[in-house]
Amino acid sequence: MNILAIGDVVGSIGCRFLRRHLPALKKMKQIDLVIANGENSADGNGLTPVSAQFLFDSGVDVVTTGNHSFRRKESYECYDSCETLLRPANYPSAAPGRGVCVVDMGRVQVGVINLMGVVYMENMDPPFDTADRILSGPLPKITLVDFHAEATGEKRSLAYYLDGRVSAVFGTHTHVQTADDCILQNGTGYLSDLGMTGPVHSVLGVKPELVIQKMRTRMPVRFDLADGECEMDCALFQVDEKTGRTLSIELLQLR
Description:
The protein has helices spanning 11-29, 49-57, 76-81, 127-135, 152-162, 208-217; strands spanning 2-6, 8-9, 33-37, 62-64, 100-104, 109-116, 142-148, 168-172, 182-183, 189-191, 196-199, 230-239, 246-254. The protein is an alpha/beta fold. It has a single domain (2-254), classed as Purple Acid Phosphatase, chain A, domain 2, CATH 3.60.21.10. The strands form two sheets. Strands 1, 2, 3, 4, 11, 12 and 13 form a seven-stranded mixed beta sheet that branches. The chain is globular and about 50 Å long. The protein starts with a strand and ends with a strand.
């Protein structure tokens, strides 16, 4: 089974770029399932019902999120009503939505878990404990984890902790694709960060001059998205349907 994981989609410009390239990529690589992080898919951060639906209509099967999950109030109902729109599972139980879904593909089921890190991030339930709780219940043999986290050490630690218990752990949030893709000893595929889907000439999707102004002055600055040439960073995980183990990982950068 071929499962594509797409890095943080940034704004309407990233959404449009994804729509232009994803259908052909799915056909060329014979992709069975697509997971994309959409927490920045709305212009100005967050996710809206419109941006989420745009991603689904473009060929994404599961949309994951992160620390900007609830930036837009209009999205709250969507998290409750759409089973394949996830927020990190280690949010308090009172938060809208869910952090786990199972996609029934007929011949096989695929589980997706969304978790968020706590190092340099918000004060959440420990991701290790949350993962243990989720994995103690019934989940398909093929299950992947989007770990939305800042620290590489935390990401790698969780991957080793879950090695052999899930098919793959891939990181999101830092918007830069890493080169440390590997298959751990017990068959779990790993990548520290998928990267970003959005403008190339930017600082994590934002106009560079605005980020520079913020860093030099420490004054409030409105972060507007950059435009121009775009890139879609993603990783293709080939997973054995019988064992749930990752067989190969292919890093992709589309421009």
